[in-house]
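Work Package 3 (structural annotation) set out to generate three-dimensional models for the target panel prioritized at the project kickoff. During this period the team completed the workflow that converts sequence records into discrete structure tokens, so that structures can be stored uniformly alongside our sequence database. As a representative example, we reproduce one entry of 266 residues exactly as it appears in the project archive.
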Amino acid sequence: MSLKARDKPETLDHANRAHAILSASSSKQWLNCPPSARLQEQFPNESSVYAEEGTFMHEVCEYKVRHGYLHDRMEKPQSEKFDTEEVEQVTDVYAEFVISVIEDLKRSGCEPLVLVEEKLDYSNIAPGGFGTGDMVILGKTEDGKGIAHIIDFKGGKGVFVDANHNTQMMLYALGALNAYGYIWDIQLIRMSIVQPRLDNISTCEMTADELIAWGESIRETAKMAFEGKGEQKAGDWCRFCRAKPVCKACKEEALSLCREEFLDLD
């Protein structure tokens, strides 16, 4: 199968992407606190300057891979607010990493299939679950094993994101396996996070069987989350939860901290 990209319009539209209730990006949250997936529905998903910058950087990343390497004809994203030298540098890091992965596969004698901004459906595990993978590269190793390499760009610098057993990446990989596993006889999964602002490029590798076993292990939790059932639980996954203002678990945790600080008070 030859190197190619999925058909794509000449203009990019990341801002208007649909989001699943059980999105991959919020998976750490709903896997640890299943009711949060439905509780958030009553609150608007408001944007921020950081989200807008992240959207623009993703568009630039896509452009650099598609236009610069795959030679797709498309318009370069424009933004007076976010088009800076730093953005150019960090998106270059991502594009160079992606290209190096493709070239490594080609050197092993494989013509990989390159899928940019690919919709990945993992609803066979999490009801209604789907997400968009920044980059999915399918190929063969030197010993002939089918491999899927999932790559995700992170433009933030506030939270370090590790690829090691990252649930967002593993759900993306399940989607890729679900769609292309039989065609490519995928036996090996690689998942990479590229986070240039924190000098972070990390990769996790597992077998397809290990990934499938993990998917089966979260099936019941995903079902509970979709139905709004289960126990509320507070933790570091609450950081971006829109339901925090009405969350009983967060309230109880805050009260517990207050009791520890003010033991001498009635």
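The chain has eight helices and five strands.
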